[in-house]
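Quarterly update, task 2.4: pyridoxine-5'-phosphate-bound model.
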Amino acid sequence: MAKYLCVNIDHIATIREARKVREPEPVAAAIIAELAGCHGITVHLRQDRRHINDGDVHLLRHTVTGSLNLEMTPTAEMVQFAKTVLPNMVTLVPEGPNELTTEGGLNVEAGISEITAAVQNLRASGILVSLFIDPKTEQVKAARKAGADYVEFHTGPYADAFERRNENEIELELSKLQDQITFASKSGLRVNAGHGLNYRNVKRISELNGIEELNIGHSIVARAALVGMERAVKEMLNLLG
Ligand code: PXP
């Protein structure tokens, strides 16, 4: 059973940026989500600042009472920024300029020296570091080598299989995830998961053994736009049991 829910509120800022105005305010969304019972708040500070911006992250650092998880790409500029904000956790993700959302896991094996340097630098400031990776043995081994505290397994392929209602593919993706969760835990890594999770597909992920936190954004903000943030978060928490 996944223990905790972290709500990714990027798309509250996406709505704000549609008009380049002051509302809706991400901090307000974070406060309501926390009051509804979520364990933490996640934001992705993109290099193009297309939704969340530096000021939002500073404000969230002062207002979020649970865990604040900052997703970012491992550039020197981003690492420096994180060290000034001191979120509870940084999740390192790959970033493409034209992608609609994060498209795949970080290739830790290929970028081992840059990623290890970023991990060590962040950990030296007391920040927990998680690496967003595909559920593959070589990536888990590389994450361990880089000195990460956590890995976050990419659940996007499972979510895609679920949308296609292809039971064989769903089972295959779930077993890849469970195998790598077990392997990561045995290697001394703590495990989170996320991407593409929603009110229909989350149950089977939450039943896997060994996941601490689920990071869920789009589906919660989409539901919040229609029924309100408090209800959207509570409904997700109910599904997680
Ligand atoms: N985890 C990571 C590393 C992500 O980049 C994202 C999207 O920002 C999520 C989880 C949340 O994905 P979704 O918005 O599809 O729930």
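Highlight for this quarter: The first strand starts at residue 4 and ends at 8.
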